[in-house]
Amino acid sequence: MFRIISKNSRTLNLQKNVILSFVLKGISIGISFLLVPLTLNYLESERYGLWLTLSSIIGWASLFDIGLGNGFRNKFAEAIAVKNDSLAKTYVSTTFALLNIIIGCVLILFFVINQFIDWGIILNTVAESSHTLSLLVIITFTFFAIRFVLQITTSIFLADQKSALVDLVNMLGSLLSLIVILLLLQFWEPSLLYFGLAFSACPVVVLIATYFLTFTGKYAKYKPSLKYIDFKQSKSLMGLGVMFFIPQICSLIIFSTSNVIVTQLFSPSDVTVYNIAFKYFSVVTLFFNIILSPSWSAYTEAFVKQDVVWIKNMIRKMVLICAVFCFGTLVMAIFANPVYRLWVGESIVVPVSLTAGMALYVSIGNWNNIFAQFNAGVSKIYIQVWLSLFGGIIFIPMAILISTKAGLIGIPLAMILAIIPGTFIQPIQSRKIINGKAKGIWNK
User: Fold this and answer.
1) In this structure, how many other beta carbons lie within 10 angstroms of the beta carbon of residue 367?
2) What burial class does residue 82 get, using C-beta atoms within 10 Å of its C-beta: 0-12 exposed, 13-18 middle, 19+ buried?
3) 301-322 pLDDT, tens per residue?
4) Does residue 241 have a pLDDT over 80?
5) Fewer CB in 10 Å around end: N or C, the chain?
6) Which of 2-16, 210-224, 319-333, 395-409 has the lowest mean pLDDT?
7) What's the CA gap between 174 and 164, in Å, rounded?
8) How far apart (Å, rounded) are the C-alpha atoms in residues 319 and 288?
């Protein structure tokens, strides 16, 4: 059982990060929304749909960390909670080495396979030549690989309950992208290749600067070092990481295949329509995650220190906040059409059914995330793995089946079916863990 402890510093730290994150994430969301009409103006609807679909496919490469980032986050948080700096540095050094080895192998494999892929067929388009698309994929994937390794710094920030720093890094990357896109609009003819280069390179430039600032400042004592690489820790890091890997795969199946399904069943232009609705309601998820995200590592610390009072109070507050966000989502759905017209103009029409489906999906998703965040923070994710497997298995066939009969609404409906079991099961597990009554699979 937990001991009853009261700690105000953890809550104050969370509140500070939430406030800063609201400001920074608000700026990022503003930039993101501004980029949509600018990009549509620069590329037009079909090429923008191509970029969204290609980005989704490249996003699959993030699977190759096999959950290592999340496993590292929990282990690093546990080490600093007990003030074991040497072990924390070992985790950083070993994870950094593993990420480099993994992505190096993936890059070699990619460059071999890419020669035999016709991206025009995969993306269902003749708007760009296969040569141009192949070159774009090479550029995008290479920059993605660099981000793959350098994002260890953001994992450190999250583990140390400094989520606002992650939002600062992301905001600066978005701001730099906006500046470059504005320059493209001013001085260059429309080019998907130039756009892809700018959009891929800007976040990497910010991450390179972040890496050097991180390990020459407050976190200098954790800087990766060859001397501290200990592959014996790989089992600890990757054992936990593999458990996170399966939900990560299933999440990517749901989010990254949606654009591919739409472009194959309908057209690249319909990918744009779908993503307008998705991006509109993603604001709800983004702002809710600003509040929720810092709690992961805070739950880890509280669980290590057996602070049951704080955990119960935090989950109770998250449930109340989720209710407020559900109401806000309903309001957004009611006023969606005027907002779409103001945002992207009259040329893109989003079906009302798609709007309603997205609103329902993000509301259910936010509820699930409250309890998934706690369970992940205390490394009890066995049930979450099976729930994710269920969702990942049924999503694609259900999305194709429903979309074929009902249109774009089929995508969010399939998403809802994929996550609905967790709506009931995850809260039960969280309650059992908190009350010290979790046994068997409930405690794994």
Assistant:
1) 22
2) exposed
3) 788 878 888 889 989 999 999 9
4) no
5) N
6) 2-16
7) 15
8) 11
User: 233 Cβ partners below 8 Å, 6+ apart?
Assistant: 90, 91, 94
- Which of 339, 365, 286 has the alpha carbon at shortest distance from 24? 286
Q: Tokens 């929720």, residue?
A: 292
Radius of gyration of the chain measured on its C-alpha atoms:
22
CA dist., res. 46 & res. 131, Å (int) = 18
Encoded tokens for 394: 């049924």
- The Cα–Cα gap between 67 and 69 comes to 6
297 or 338: which carries more pLDDT confidence?
338
The predicted model gives 57-67 an average pLDDT of 63
Helix H or strand E encompassing 374: helix 352-377
The single residue listed with the structure tokens 């489906």 is: 357
CA distance 94 to 69: 12
Which structure tokens are listed for 272? 């744009």
What is the model's pLDDT at position 300? 81
Q: Between 369 and 191, where is the model more confident?
A: 369
CA triple 145-274-43, angle to 5 deg: 65
Contact 389, 251 (CB under 8 A): no
Q: Is the dihedral of CA 402, 407, 410, 411 positive or negative?
A: positive
Query: How far apart (Å, rounded) are the C-alpha atoms in residues 373 and 427?
Result: 11
Output the DSSP codes for 14-34.
Answer: HHHHHHHHHHHHHHHHHHHHH
Percent of the chain with pLDDT over 70: 91
Q: Is the pLDDT of residue 7 over 90?
A: no
* CA-wise closest residue to 132 among 204, 40, 51, 59: 51
Q: What is the pTM of this model?
A: 0.65
43's tokens: 């590329």
State how far the Cα of 244 lies from the Cα of 249, in Å rounded to an integer.
9
Q: What percent of the chain has pLDDT over 90?
A: 24
Could you give the CA distance from residue 285 to residue 358 in angstroms, rounded to a whole number? 11
